[in-house]
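Input/output pair, single chain:
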Amino acid sequence: MSDVEAVPKVQFNVYLPPGLVRRIKHLAVDEGASLSALVERALTAYADAEEAS
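Output:
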């Protein structure tokens, strides 16, 4: 089990432009990842970079 799957999850809704949602869905499919896993990785990378600066 990966670190992404090991922790409990909570659901929250965000509103994004339709074009961005399409792009993210396609990226997830291309990577063989779930949409949740891809968004989690992206938000974690962003938060880590912000906290490091």
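The longest helix spans residues 35-52. The radius of gyration is 12 Å.
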